[in-house]
Here is the input.
Amino acid sequence: MNLTLRIWRQTGPEDKGRMVTYPVPDVSPDMSFLEMLDVLNERLILDGEEPVAFDHDCREGICGACSLMINGEAHGPQRGTTACQLHMRQFSDGDTIDIEPWRARAFPVIKDLVVNRNAFDKIIAAGGYVTAPTGSAPEAHSTPVPKDDADAAFSSAACIGCGACVAACPNGSGMLFTAAKVTQLSLLPQGQPERYTRVIGMVDAHDEAGFGGCTNIGECTSACPKGIPLNTIGRLNRDYLKATTKRAGTPGS
Amino acid sequence: MVITKTRSPIRSNVGLKAVMAVTGILLVLFLIVHMLGNLKIFTGETSFDHYAHWLRDLGTPLLPTTWYLWIQRTILTVAVLAHIGAATVLAMRARAARPVAYAHRRKIHVNYAARTMRWGGVIILLFVIYHILDLTTGHLNPQGDPANPYGNVVADFAPERWYVTLFYTLAIVTLGFHLRHGAASAFRSLGQQTPKGERRARAAALVFAVVLCAGYLVVPFAVLTGLVA
Here is the structure.
C-alpha cells in the first residue's frame, strides 16, 4: 500500500504548528498504525530530519498512552480499538490520512502529536481513590458486592484514561473520564466513605482544568476504545446533585 | 482528604446542566398547558374567548384579577433567563475548551436535534418575542383586539398572511427538535443512570416532541384551510 500522511508538526509548546505531508510507500496491511509511523520515523532519521513525536507504550490497547486523531476520529475508524491496535488493513491503497493530536485547552501540545494529559492526574488526585486500611490484606469475601454493582463498576474501571472522550467531544468535555473514575468507586462498598466529597472534588478539578460541560450527545462513548457507556455520566450527575444536599462538617447529613 | 471548594456547586458544569434541566421542565409544563388552551379554539368562538378571559380571572377571589397571570409570567421569565444564562455560560466554556480546531473533523454522527440546540434556542427566543407582541399585546396583530382573542387568531393566520404561518411553522418545528434532544437530556442531567431508562427517555422525548408540534400546528392550519373562521 502507498499512503500519503498529513501529520501535525509542532516543535514545542510555543510553536504555532502546521500540517506536513509525507508520502509513505510500501506499507504492509498487517502493520499496526504505530508500526507504520515507526517506518516513517526511521526514514526521517536516515534523511537527517526530526522524527514525528507520538505517545505510545504497551502497544496492546491497555495503557492509554496512544492518542492520535486519525482522519478526524479519536483512535481512528475502528470502534472499540486504540490507535496502537488499529491495523493498516483498515485503510486502502492511495489513501490520504490526516493525523492530529488531541485538541483541548486542558491538553496542551508538548510536541507534534504528544499532548500533556496532566489534567487527568489532577482530577484523580482530587478524589479518585479510597482510604486503604493498614495492616494485612482483608479476606476478599468479607465485603460482599452485588453482582450488578460489580459489573457496572468493572465496566467503569475499564477506562484507560487515554483522553479520546475529550478529543471527540464537541464541547471538549472530560465528563466520561471523570464519570468512569467516580463511579468505579462509588458503586462499591469500599468507595462509600468518600463518595460525596469525591464527586465534588473531581468535578471541581475537571472544571478548573478548563474542560467543557456535557451536552448528553454521546460522541465520547462512540470514540471510547473501552466502550464506557454514556449512562455512567448520569451516575456522576446523580452523585453530584446528592452531594450538594450534604453539608460539609455536619455529621449524619 | 479532599478539600472541596467553597465555590457554589450550581456554577459547576454539572450544576448548570441541572439548572437547564429544571427550568426546561418548567417551560415544557407551560408548553403543554398552552397547547391544550390553544386547542380550545375548536370548541368555538364563545368558548375560546371565555377561556382567554378566564385566564385573567384565574386565582380570584384569593388574588386580585390578573395577579395569578403575572405570577406565572414572572416565574416563566425567570426560568427562561436562567435557562439562557446557563446555556450561554456552558457554550462559552465549551468554546474555550478547544482553542485550536481540528484540521480534519469527521462530521459528528449524533442526531440533528442535538447539534442544533444552541442556535435552535436562539430562534425559539426570537419567535417567543414576536409571538408575545403578536398575540399577547396585539402590537403586531392585524386586529389586536384584547376583547376578541378568537378574532385575533383568525386574522393572524389568514391565507393572505401566509408568511406568518410559515414563520410560525418553522419556529414550532425548531421547538420540536429542541425538545427531542432536550426533554431526554434533562433527565440525564438530573441523574437518569440506566441504559434502559435512556432508551425510554429518548423514545418518549421523540413522541412528545411530535405530539406537541402537531398540537401547536393544527391551529394555524385550521385557520388557513378555513376550518376555523
